[in-house]
Design a protein that fits this description.
The protein is α/β, with parallel strands linked by helices. It has 2 domains: 240 residues, QueA-like, CATH 3.40.1780; 85 residues, QueA-like (Thrombin, subunit H, Beta Barrel), CATH 2.40.10.240. The protein is built from 8 helices and 17 strands. The strands form 3 sheets. The protein has a 9-stranded mixed β-sheet. A 6-stranded antiparallel barrel has the order 5-6-7-10-9-8. A two-stranded parallel ribbon has the order 4-11. A hairpin with a 5-residue loop joins strand 8 and strand 9. It is globular, with a radius of gyration of 21 Å.
């Protein structure tokens, strides 16, 4: 068995959640207790019973942009699909795209709005890295309003083959999303409701926020021959001075730092010095957490169930213990938990 084969597992297709639950916090929660090696079954709504006064819950406030683009090659009418990745200060977009035939610099794509009507044209300026393009819309509009009109929520392909319905604009977004920039949701945060967060705060759990704009690279399977050979895609994150100070104070007083999602783990660990003190952080991180990584900032982790052979699964197994998390996944499958972005969650303490 190769190193990567250890991070593989078989999941019945019917356990891949295609819709979110009507009420976010009704998702099941598999509680993993590392000290006792114990597993128990709860719900996300039970978090006030599972967390303690003095704990600090850390959320990623990134906001998913409607980054999936659909259109046609203006000259040929050929179907084109793409993904907005980022924009620079000069109005140029970095995109991925696919169509039949070979695209050429100078060619335009006529984008369609969500009703299938022709809208703005996107002119291809130059080829970018990894099969992408540098392009510019033939419009003076700001990026976000334009994407709101012509973009679609970039659901992962295992959910309805990536085809959104109108409700996904709200459901594939955390209730505390504030900073636009992600092309995928920080899915562990999808389970929280405003009343649940208010209950946690009322019992003395601090709620802190940071930002990590989730990119596609995080979710791609590892294709390198070993973990050491995998190149992690960099993602932009920020943790301000006030948040760093608040988290440090909570931990110094004996509270646990509970990261909601692997994205929060990566920012917290990137922003922590060798003495375990959190520092303000702004910039990109390509931190790939794999054995034998020593965690300095995170005491507990709430996370969804992740695809096989991904860096996310490697991070969770590194944090929770290889055998224990392997057993947790086996039990989640046996108990028919719902998997992946719209699925259930686990809390590792």
């Amino acid at each position: 068995m190769s190193e990567l084969d250890q991070y593989d597992y078989t999941l019945p297709q019917e356990l891949i959640a295609q819709q979110p639950l009507p009420r976010r916090c009704d998702a099941r929660l598999l509680v993993v207790e590392r000290a006792r090696g114990a597993l128990s079954h709860r719900h996300v709504r039970d978090l006030p019973e599972l967390l303690r006064a003095g704990d600090c819950l850390v959320l990623n406030d990134t906001r998913v942009v409607p980054a999936r683009l659909v259109g046609r090659r203006t000259l040929t009418g050929g179907r084109w699909e793409g993904l907005f990745l980022a924009a620079d200060a000069h109005g140029f977009w970095r995109i991925l795209g696919k169509t039949r035939g070979r695209l050429a610099p100078g060619e335009t794509i006529t984008l369609e709005d969500c009703q299938g009507r022709e809208d703005v044209r996107l002119r291809l300026a130059a080829r970018g890295g990894e099969g992408g393009w540098i392009a510019r819309p033939e419009s003076d509009e700001e990026v976000l309003p334009l994407l709101e009109r012509v973009g679609r929520i970039p659901l992962p392909p295992y959910i309805r083959k990536g085809e959104m319905v109108p409700a996904d604009r709200q459901r594939y977004q955390t209730v505390y999303a504030a900073t636009p920039g992600a092309v995928a949701a920080p899915t562990a945060g999808l389970h929280f409701t405003e009343p649940l967060l208010a209950r946690l705060e009322a019992q003395g759990v601090a709620i802190c926020r940071l930002t990590l704009h989730v990119g596609l690279g995080t979710f791609r399977p590892i294709t390198a021959g070993s973990l050491a050979d995998h190149t992690m895609h960099a993602e932009w994150g920020r943790l301000n001075e006030a948040t760093a100070g608040h988290v440090n104070a909570r931990r110094a007083a004996g509270g646990r730092i509970v990261a909601v999602g692997t994205t929060c783990v990566r920012v917290l660990e990137s922003a922590t010095d060798e003495q375990g003190r959190l520092c303000p952080f702004s910039g990109t991180t390509d931190l790939f957490i794999r054995p034998p990584y020593r965690f300095r900032a995170v005491d507990a982790l709430m996370t969804n169930f992740h695809l096989p052979r991904t860096t996310l699964l490697v991070l969770v197994r590194t944090f929770g213990g290889d055998d224990l998390i392997r057993r947790a996944y086996e039990q989640a499958i046996a108990e028919q938990y719902r998997f992946y972005s719209y699925g259930d969650a686990m809390l590792i303490v």
